[in-house]
Amino acid sequence: MKNESTDTEHQHGTAALVRSIDVSAPASLHDSVREMTEAAGGQRSRARPSALRPRPSAFRTRSSAFRTRPSALLVGALASAAGFIAALILLLGSGGPTAPTVLQASTLGLRPATTSAPEENPHAPGQLAISTEGIAYPYWNRRFGWQTAGVRSDKLAGHMVTTVFYANASGQRIGYSIVDGHPLATPTEGRAAIWHGTRFDVLHPSGSTVVTWRRDGHTCILVGSKVSAKTLLTLANWQAT
Amino acid sequence: MARLDPQSLPQHVDRLYRAAWALCGSPHDAEDLVQETFARVLARPRFLHGQDELAYLMRVLRNTFLTQRRTAGRRPQNAQITLDDVEFADPRTGERPEQALQAQEVFGAISTLPDNYRLALVAVDVVGLSYREAARALGTREATIATRVFRGRERVAREMSGEPAAQPDRDGTPADGTPSSPREASGPQGSLA
């Protein structure tokens, strides 16, 4: 039978226990929030984080509602342009000796498509009629409601990266890139998930979510903004049967 | 009317992360939830309407949490795959594993509470809002918050001590936390569910 002192013990004990927990958010989350707030608050000394570009609403409203002065806008635009050019030089470094990182390659999945969307391979249900070095891209429409939205190909430090874009009914968009040649180095930041024997690495650069893993020795990258790691992991793990 | 200053938001990340963890029961989902919460807040200028910043963020966190869960419920599911099978190789707060384990245990227990109790407990004990602030953030009455926090703590204490599953509350509220009367169900802005 309960009594008043037991209730009081429960109340005080539980409250004290809950309040004593002092875990910190991961550094990647701090970085992501800091970049978002800097972008929204008009600190234009830094280039806009590339992964925030797919959130056009944030910037469309910010420019009018925060009433940033024209001079600040000009400085911001110049800084953004300089940052973008620097990133472009870094990314498209014409096959230099430095291998690209997964994070660099993942930015390609946030860019626009350059060619039309591929169809499902009629001879291989569950796969698209497009592949990189024999590795086919998945057809997710029937199973998950993600339709193909286009393709782009980029040369990245000697690697050809082909990205297929998918979009769902909610307007979310993701890019699935496969890097040809030797696999890229496994990222050391983020977290790793071992699932059915395959290692998936999850990263959160600048407000986006990146999942990378290997298929037949090739680096695969799924990236999206406003898409959870869980969604990307589910898609990445799915195999057409 | 004070406008929310985006530059002041990073100071709340740790607290919101803990709140999100207690709501979701998973540090990984918590990370997604916090990120989405800040993305929403920063999408346009926000006004505090007399609220504390933290209380305002708690309200957005709660709305984002409920929206995400509704959306997840509508999404096509792959019956063959559950992410519960995922084994994360490097758990958070690796430098303080005992804290991470305790957090997982306590937040895990909170995350099993019915929504109303969970949100009230998170707002008061995890985020640190007063009953009045929590009531405003969650759109209900102060007295309702006090009741929900009381019952939430009781259930968490039982869960942590391994006592049997909750019986119906003394006032007749079912064990799943479903409001048993119109008074419990509706605050100034209606039910949370």
Protein topology:
The complex is a heterodimer of chains A (241) and B (193).
Chain A: H1 4-20, H2 27-41, H3 56-65, H4 70-91, H5 102-106, E1 127-132, E2 135-138, H6 141-144, E3 147-156, E4 159-167, E5 173-179, E6 191-195, E7 198-203, E8 208-215, E9 218-225, H7 229-237
Antiparallel strand pairs in A: 1-2, 3-4, 4-5, 5-9, 6-7, 7-8, 8-9
Chain B: H1 13-24, H2 27-42, H3 53-74, E1 87-88, H4 97-111, H5 115-126, H6 131-138, H7 142-161, H8 182-185
Helix pairs in contact in B: 1-2, 1-3, 1-4, 1-5, 2-3, 3-6, 4-7, 5-6, 5-7, 6-7
**Terminal Cα span of chain A:** 57 Å
Q: Return residue spans of chain A where pLDDT drops below 50 for at least 5 consecutive residues.
A: 43-73, 86-97
How many helices of chain B in DSSP terms? 8
Give helix % range of chain B. 55-70%
Query: How large, in whole angstroms, is the Cα Rg of chain A?
Result: 22 Å
Weakly predicted, low-confidence segments of chain B: 75-95, 170-193
Q: So what's the overall shape of chain B?
A: globular
- The helix tally of chain A amounts to 7
The major beta sheet of chain A can be summarized as: 7 strands, antiparallel
Description:
The complex is a heterodimer of chains A (about 240) and B (about 190). Chain A is of the alpha+beta class. Chain A has two domains: about 20-90; about 100-235, Phosphorylase Kinase, domain 1. Chain A is about 35% helix and about 25% strand. Chain A is built from seven helices and nine strands, in the order H-H-H-H-H-E-E-H-E-E-E-E-E-E-E-H. Chain A has helices spanning about 5-20, 25-40, 55-65, 70-90, 100-105, 140-145, 230-235, and strands at about 125-130, 135-140, 145-155, 160-165, 175-180, 190-195, 200-205, 210-215, 220-225. In chain A, the strands form two sheets. A seven-stranded antiparallel β-sheet of chain A has the order 3-4-5-9-8-7-6. In chain A, strand 3 (about 145-155) and strand 4 form a beta hairpin. Chain A starts with a helix and ends with a helix. Residues about 45-75 and about 85-95 of chain A have low confidence and may be disordered. With about 190 residues, chain B is mainly alpha-helical. Chain B has one domain: Butyryl-CoA Dehydrogenase, subunit A, domain 3 (Up-down Bundle). Chain B contains eight helices and one strand; from the N terminus they run αααβααααα. Chain B has helices at about 15-25, 25-40, 55-75, 95-110, 115-125, 130-140, 140-160, 180-185; one strand spanning about 85-90. In chain B, helix 1 packs parallel to helix 3 (about 55-75) and helix 5 packs across helix 7. Chain B starts with 12 loop residues before the first helix and ends in an 8-residue tail after the last helix. The interface between A and B is large, with 59 and 60 residues.
